[in-house]
Amino acid sequence: MEHNAKKTSKKSAFSIFLFISAIIVAILGVALLVANIYLYITSVNQAVAQGYAVATVRKAYVPSQLLPGIFQPIALYGGIALLLLAAGKISDKVSKCLTVLTKKEICDNVTHEYCEDQTDQDVADVENIETTNPEEISNETQKNID
Fold first, then answer.
1. Using a CB cutoff of 8 Å and minimum separation of 24, what contacts does 60-69 make?
2. Residue extents of the structural domains in the chain
3. What is the pLDDT of residues 87-104, one digit of tens each?
4. pTM above 0.85, yes or no
5. Which of 69, 67, 95, 86 lies closest to 25, judged by CA?
6. H helices of the chain, where?
């Protein structure tokens, strides 16, 4: 017996929304990272133009401006993007599991009563297999082979 079930399942709209949101947040994080580095370079150039030594300016600005300007976008925006990506993957897997569990794909072109009868028959077959003695099964297979 053959059922017309879909081989591939599409991603849910919510999963796609989460993936797109993760991409947008990651792009915003990269943009903020570039802006912070540009701000650091501009600040160093302005201080050097005012007559301060480059080494002194860098020594002061690296821990106070550059490092926080790098770590904040990576940690904050990168973390949010990873969380959205993970939530999208989890949502995708849950929607696939729920799709498999529904009888709609299994009984797509079959009437509901036939599907219930087939399910009852499958349960009865499993019960018969569980109650049958393993020696009887091997004896029956030997008879069928001979």
1. 65/39, 65/40, 66/36, 66/37, 66/40, 69/33, 69/36, 69/37, 69/39, 69/40
2. 12-101, 103-146
3. 999 998 888 888 777 755
4. no
5. 86
6. 13-49, 54-61, 67-72, 78-101, 103-106, 112-131, 134-145
